Amino acid sequence: MDKTESFKANHTGRPYLAAFHYYGHIGDFELAGRMRFGRTGGRGQAQIEVPVPSVSGLHGEFGSAQGHWFYRDLGSSNGSRINGKALTSVHEMLDGDILTVVPRDDEQQEPAFAGIFVRLRDGEDLIWRKIRLVPGMQPIHIGRQESGLSPEDPTLSASHALFRYGSDGLSVLDEGSLNGVIVNGERCDARQLKPLDVVRLGRSLWILTEDVLWAGEIREAVTGVKKKSAAVSEGAVPASGRAPAVSREAQAEQHQIYASAASAGKPVPAVRPAKKFDGSRLVIDIDERSVWKNFKKRVLLRDIHLAVEPGDMVLILGGSGAGKSTLIKSVMGYDKAEGTIRYGDKDVYKDYEDMKHEIGYVPQQDLVRPSDNVRDTLMAAARIRMPGDSTLQEQSARVDWLMEVLGLTAEKNNLIGSISGGQKKRVSIGIELAADPALFFLDEPDSGLDGPTASGLMEQLRSIADLGKIVMVITHSPDRAFHLFTKVIVLGKTEDQVGHLLFFGTPTQALSFFGTDRLETIVRRINSTSEGGEGLADHYYSQYAQWEAEHGGRQ
How far is it, in rounded angstroms, from Cα 305 to Cα 77? Predict the structure, then answer.
């Protein structure tokens, strides 16, 4: 296919509403007859239900006449917008039109919900994939020659567009394409994207949520497979793993998440059968983690071999550039390293489609909406992340349990923007715990918190580990939680400028090995002299092999 064709929107075919929340993909709803749109659990008897607090119980209505589809707002609290403009009358929905809901009290005017109107011809599927946005990631080129993303789409130019993720967020740039880059219905050369911005490149759709860029491809359906818009396995562009909202049965096929059963002596609501943690170990065998930059290979980590037991709360300690965040992302499967990561009988890399539901990750930055209240935020997460066949009562019980465990019950009706930094962090943790992951990773969860608040947060993480989960934490203030950690991983950059494992053992063993009475002093010991340290990383690296042999090898 050498020639790019002019893009023409579909005006016939089966209509769908692809629904997105700030936290991710809700589902794809096939429109048929007259259908009402509203909030999950509302009393408006909506056929299209979304777990978004800013959506009214009965918000709007879709209908058709002689093959044309229309939408009207039903007097909702926050109103409806089509392609960014407030809706004041009935609107005919065209292929690619974007319905958004913006909370009236949101000063940034950022939508809490976005629905994309898409028409599919017979024999076509809408397949959503997701790309996790991580610092330092390479630009994403879209085009027939660049990515192979939609090679059969004649409306994509050979080199169509570029997504770039940096310190200022995600941006998209037109690379001289014929059909252009369309953002929220308008053509542009370049645009800094905000959450729930929708980009159209040819027939493909791209939408930004939380720390994920979703790619929607229209493809020929697989012969013999019953039609449904689906989320597919992760490949060159990682897949969503989210179930489509066309039916609860379809959702249940994709989700294997169960509510937790015990909470260190606290009562647990009866939600659904408990996930049984089988005592699986997390075995980390990283030979090398490297990146290529300017045609040069740069090794970030090398020879990280250790095993973590269920119930362990592990401190990851090291100086700047030692590879702490790199280690976490490699173990989670976000950035694959050379080697293997095993949890029980599963290979995290090879079985990622199954394992990704077992992994929770809380980044340093809190990604929560200030205009939503605490309980509604957690309910939205439970609706999206719990099994598709879970009832509203089960989701509500799960959220009540999360608020109890995290000490948020008293704050449940308060807006996120009005609560403290520590409470916001607990909400971020609750969002990830809604899926009941077995492996839980946190990058500086106590950053910016005062001592008592940070200590309380760490106590709650300890109670989560006590459920049989594995909790791994990066923190620069480890001594205030010394008694809570069961293991310490120490990473250091040696003379070869590569991150190595300098120590793995209990906190008490770590103090003895490094000859100090404080965990924070360890970082000073291993940092280079140019960073104000003692420059002893190579010394401890050579000493660790002997120490490990004397203490029985892999812990």
Answer: 55
For residue 272, give the nearest of 286, 257, 285 by alpha carbon. 257
Please name every residue paired with 98 in a beta bridge, in sequence order, or none if there are none.
116
Residue whose C-alpha is closest to residue 332's, from 350, 352, 315, 312? 352
CA-CA-CA-CA dihedral for 364, 365, 371, 374, to nearest 10: -10
Q: Closest Cα partner for 99 from 172, 16, 160?
A: 16
- Residue pair 314/328 in contact (Cβ under 8 Å)? The answer is no
User: How far does Cα 292 stand from its chain's mean position?
Assistant: 25
C-beta of residue 246 within 8 angstroms of C-beta of residue 229: yes
Enclosing H/E stretch for 397? helix 392-405
- Tens of pLDDT, residue by residue over 101-122, are 998 876 668 899 999 999 998 8
Buried-exposed string 484-508: b where 16+ CB fall within 10 A, e elsewhere: bbbbbbbbbbbeeebbbbbbbbebe
pTM of the model: 0.57
C-beta neighbour count of 272 within 10 angstroms: 17
- Higher pLDDT: 246 or 134? It is 134
State CA 301 to chain mean position distance: 24
Question: What's 521's DSSP letter?
Answer: H
The C-alpha angle 327, 328, 334, rounded to 5 degrees, equals: 105
Measured distance CA(98)–CA(57) in Å, rounded: 20
